[in-house]
Structures are given as structure tokens and as C-alpha cells.
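The instructor's notes for this session suggest beginning with a concrete chain rather than abstract definitions. Hand out the sequence below and ask the class to guess, before any prediction is shown, which regions might be ordered.
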Amino acid sequence: MHNIAMTGVYFFAIALLYSTVGHAGASGYLATMALLSFPPDVMKPTALTLNIIVALVTTVRFAKAGYFSWRLFWPFALASVPMAYLGGGMSMDATFYKILVGIALVFAAFHLILRSKFGPDDPGRTTYPGIGASLAVGGGLGLLSGLTGVGGGIFLSPVLIILHWAGLRRTAAVAAAFILLNSISGLAGYLQKGGAFPDHLSFWSVAVLSGGFIGSSLGATKFNSPVLRVLLGIMLVMAGLKMAVI
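After discussion, reveal the predicted structure:
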């Protein structure tokens, strides 16, 4: 029997930390549930639902602070939403699912640790990507998002930063909106194929709503702690290896 209250505390902390950088926390929720041995049929809908809640709050907060770019966002979203719906409705062998999510978590950890080395936004060093590149990246990340229950922002963010398509806070704003749409689409695909919401989701939803509001408020106005991101990255590596190997 899982400790529902303690899981809620973990989810609150994850939502707070992730939302400071424009993410909704799906990889952290998946990591927590992997470490606690939750079954895959609970992990996917839980991660997607909590993602929607935190991503909505985070998108609003960063947009109000003036960091959202529609021009940068729309090509990624146009390709990702239908692919996320397709991926969300796909059934997958439990072992393969765990391996795929494990890889996703390790990648997420790499991103969190790498991001701690970046400084503040430098708009002068960024340039908008071509439409074709945006559509290709968005479609691939959307499919992966729907398959794994990860909103896709954890993969989009390093692409935007490494290729100099956006600075840190603009990346956070675009990633949050990207996560929101992909999570809605992925959850719709999952439910349309007969999936159901797990128990205790309402309690966890309140926990992440609180954490997301606090974290996004801090992230939109202040620098984030690289030490916390590195520690969280180490935890994700451990959880990802646990899923992929055990």
C-alpha cells in the first residue's frame, strides 16, 4: 500500500522545483512512482493529469511576465499535438514502457544538470528556427510525450537552449505551453482508448497546484538554484536506471 500522503508531499516538491524552469514535473512524478513501484497503468495518467495542472499555472505566470513567444511556439505545437494524441492512445508492453521511460528520465537528468551551467537570458545570441525544423522537432517530441506521459518540455528545452533558439526564461515560457497542449492531447488519447483516472488523483492535484504556483512565481522573477537541479538530476538518473534495468 503506497503512502498517499507522502507521495503528495513528493509531488508538491517536484512541482515547485520543476515549475521554476517552466516545466510541469512529469519526469519527476514518473521517477517518484518508479521508485515506489507504482504500476504503469497508474503512472501514465497520473503524470499527464498533474502535468496539465502545473503547466497551466506555469504558462500563465511566465506569459504575464512577458516571456512567451507565439512565433517560436506555434510550429512546435502544430506538429506535436496530433502526435501526442496518437502516442497517448498507443498500448505498450510494460517492460518496453519502463525502458522507454527510464531513458526519458536519464535524458531529463542530463538536461537539468546541463542547464545549471547556463547563465541569464541573452536575446542577442538567439535566432528563430525554420518552420520545417520546428515542425519536425515538435512532431517527434509530441509522439514521445504521448507514449511516456512526459509532457515533452523536458526534451524541447535543451533543444531550444543548445541551438540558441531561445534564452532561459523564454524557453521556460514556451516549454510550459508546449507541455500543457501535449499533456492534454496525450491524456485525451489515453482516455479515448479506455484508460481511467487512478484513485487519489484529486489529492495529488491540490499538492502540485500549490507547488506549481509557488515555483512558477519564483522562476518568472528570480534565478534558480543550480544545486537543486543537479540533486534532482541525480535522483532522476537513479530512477531511470531502476526502470530501464530492473
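Then share the key points. Residues 118-122 have pLDDT under 50 and may be disordered. Residues 76 and 133 are 9 Å apart (CA to CA).
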